[in-house]
């Protein structure tokens, strides 16, 4: 079940990245040097937020998406695809993820609670395991869909403004 869940999270992360790359062509923007530096430091989600923010004049504070979930999709994909043990099929969260995210959507609730009660040390070898459930996967998929819908609505707003400006220019009004 965990292998299927990991595959689903990997596909979801990769689909999100492909969607954002497709937006580069559709909206006609690209990741500049600043965005590429952001991608190296904070991941591709942060880089695309920056680039789309500029291209579409987006106020991300108005976006209803839980970006902590979006980021965890990518981080979890990376963790399960690039594990650190030949002996175990399970994967534990790494210190950087545990430092950044305390509300892990892909973790067993009792392991997460035990870890938190033990002081939530990101460096412990008893870090919570990556555990993907149908419910956590549903939450992740819903957030990705919400992000896509919200971005598409922003694109439509831009298109309406451009058409309106074009008509005003042509009619002189």
Quick one: overall form? Answer: elongated
Radius of gyration: 19 Å
Topology, number of strands:
0
Q: What structural category characterises the helix and strand content? A: mainly alpha
User: What string, H for helix and E for strand, traces the elements in order?
Assistant: HHHHHHH
Average of pLDDT: 89
Question: What's a concise summary of this model?
Answer:
The protein has helices at 2-27, 33-42, 44-56, 67-81, 95-100, 109-117, 134-171. With 173 residues, it is mainly α.
Describe the protein.
It is a single chain. This protein has 173 residues and is mainly alpha-helical. Helix content is 68%, strand content 0%. It has helices spanning 2-27, 33-42, 44-56, 67-81, 95-100, 109-117, 134-171. Helix 1 (2-27) packs across helix 4 (67-81), helix 1 packs parallel to helix 7 and helix 4 (67-81) packs across helix 7 (134-171). The longest helix is centred in the C-terminal third of the chain and has 38 residues, at 134-171. It starts with a helix and ends with a helix.
Please tag this protein with its features.
mainly alpha, 7 helices, 173 residues
Write the layout of secondary structure elements.
Layout: H1 2-27, H2 33-42, H3 44-56, H4 67-81, H5 95-100, H6 109-117, H7 134-171
């Amino acid at each position: 079940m965990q292998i299927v869940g990991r595959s689903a999270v990997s596909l979801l992360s990769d689909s999100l990245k492909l969607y954002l790359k497709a937006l580069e062509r559709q909206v006609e923007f690209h990741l500049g040097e600043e965005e590429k530096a952001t991608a190296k430091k904070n991941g591709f989600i942060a880089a695309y937020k920056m680039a789309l923010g500029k291209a579409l004049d987006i106020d991300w504070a108005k976006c209803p998406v839980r970006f902590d979930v979006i980021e965890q999709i990518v981080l979890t994909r990376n963790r399960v695809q690039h594990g650190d043990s030949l002996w175990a099929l399970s994967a534990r969260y790494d210190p950087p993820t545990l430092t950044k995210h305390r509300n892990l959507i892909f973790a067993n609730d009792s392991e997460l609670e035990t870890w938190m009660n033990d002081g939530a040390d990101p460096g412990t070898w008893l870090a919570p395991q990556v555990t993907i459930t149908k419910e956590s996967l549903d939450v992740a998929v819903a957030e990705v869909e919400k992000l896509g819908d919200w971005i598409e609505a922003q694109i439509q707003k831009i298109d309406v403004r451009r058409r309106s400006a074009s008509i005003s220019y042509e009619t002189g009004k």
